[in-house]
Amino acid sequence: MKIKLSMLGLLVVLFIVGCGETPYYGKVDNTPYATKECLKELASGAEIDHKNKIDKIVVYKKKRVLYAYKDGKVVETFRISLGANGGADAGNKVKAGDYRTPEGTYSIVRKKCDARLYRSLMISYPSEADKARARKRGLNPGGYITIHGQPKWNADGRGDEYTLSRDWTEGCMAVPNFAMDKLWAAVEKGVEIEIHA
Predict the structure, then answer these.
(1) In 3-state terms, the chain is what percent helix, strand and coil (to 5)?
(2) Is 41 helix (H, G, I), strand (E, B) or coil?
């Protein structure tokens, strides 16, 4: 019974830290989640490793995997977690709050220093097609879908096996923090991302 309650508590924590944008209200943050240095890095473009830039990201939801490409070749492969509502099995994102990960072709529109989920790469969801599909049904397509790192409680990666064995985000794609570091240094605005079922 205690094990079931512990797992339930952990799931509640994971849901609370989803992937929606929430400001950080802490007083002092000297962890890797501190945004001050991160923002300085972004302002100067110092985060980019020009020798190891990638030009495309491809995600396969059923496999729970993200591939990073350079010049048509896979250079990195990372495990991911998806939206809490069944991941690939639930289908494409339809509306705000459905906890599904979208499918389609998008691009990276900006980088965000995140005090809750390490760092994130925002994608261009919803596309015009996503908006039209939602409008036809009288729905809000939602937005703020990112590739992001882990919540603070898993900053050191000790909980990666747990977080990567389930889908827990609000529709985003979550990678381990070491993977986020690699993507952060390799991805510039405009990089294409394909998300497949």
Answers:
(1) 30, 25, 45
(2) helix
Return the CATH class of domain 2-19+29-196.
mainly beta
The residues with which 146 forms a beta bridge, in sequence order, are: 122
Q: Which residue has the tokens 């943050």?
A: 29
DSSP for residue 73: E
Query: How far, CA to CA in Å, does 100 sit from each of 149, 188, 192?
Result: 18, 25, 20
Cβ atoms 66, 173 nearer than 8 A: yes
> Among all residues, which ones are annotated catalytic?
148, 172
Q: Which of 177, 61, 181 is nearest to 116 (CA)?
A: 177
User: How do strand 104-113 and strand 119-123 relate by DSSP bridges?
Assistant: antiparallel
**Residue appearing with tokens 């599909």:** 133
pTM: 0.83
Q: What is the pLDDT of residues 51-71, one digit of tens each?
A: 999 999 999 999 999 999 999
13-22, 118-127, 175-184: which has the minimum mean pLDDT? 13-22
How many residues comprise the chain? 197
Cα–Cα dist 132/98, whole Å: 17
Number of neighbours of residue 152 by Cβ within 10 angstroms: 17
Tokens of residue 177, six digits: 């923090």
Annotated domain spans of the chain:
2-19+29-196
The mean-pLDDT minimum among 34-38, 52-56, 170-174 falls in 34-38
